UniProtKB/TrEMBL annotation:
UniProt name for this protein: OsmC-like protein
SUPFAM superfamilies in alphabetical order: OsmC-like
PANTHER family: PROTEIN YHFA
One Pfam family matching this protein: OsmC
InterPro entries documented for this protein: KH_dom-like_a/b (IPR015946), OsmC/Ohr_fam (IPR003718), OsmC/Ohrsf (IPR036102)
Highest taxon listed in the record's lineage: Bacteria
Length: 140
């Protein structure tokens, strides 16, 4: 399988990115000459990691018949000091909300995503240490 995207320069530091799922704007911070009117490329990598794993988790919740009220994933990355700057350490925190959460099954679901299914996670492991944590929140 091959994926293809197209990114068109709009002037300055702004670009329009075309993705199979839709279009979005990329721009730089004002401090580096951008207009602060678009998504940041490096942060999009963190979004891709959360989105990839999130899709796995949502799919596995259904397949494994695990009930949660909601969940979200927070991702934080530390960049190297020297150019080219890249993420050397990434922290992911999965937050699950619900009543009587099945913590064992949720742990298994996250593990399946991060160890077997999430290709973006596998790519990140090539250049960064990825630390994963799960937090359970009761919605009583």
């Amino acid at each position: 399988m091959t994926h293809q995207v197209s990114t068109k320069w709009l002037g300055g530091l702004a670009f329009e990115a075309t993705n199979p799922g839709g279009n979005f704007r990329i721009d730089g911070d004002i401090e580096i000459g951008g207009t602060d009117n678009g998504l940041r490329p490096k942060a999009l990598m963190l979004d891709a990691l959360a989105g990839c794993s999130g899709i796995d988790v949502a799919s596995l919740l259904t397949k494994m018949k695990v009930s949660v009220d909601s969940f979200h994933i927070d991702v934080e990355g530390d960049l190297t000091e020297e150019h080219p700057k890249y993420y050397h350490t990434v922290r992911m925190v999965y937050h699950f909300y619900g009543i009587d959460l099945d913590k064992e099954k949720l742990q298994k679901i996250v593990n399946l995503s991060i160890e077997k299914y999430c290709g973006v996670m596998e790519m990140f492991r090539k250049f960064a240490q990825v630390d994963v944590k799960i937090e359970f929140h009761s919605t009583l």
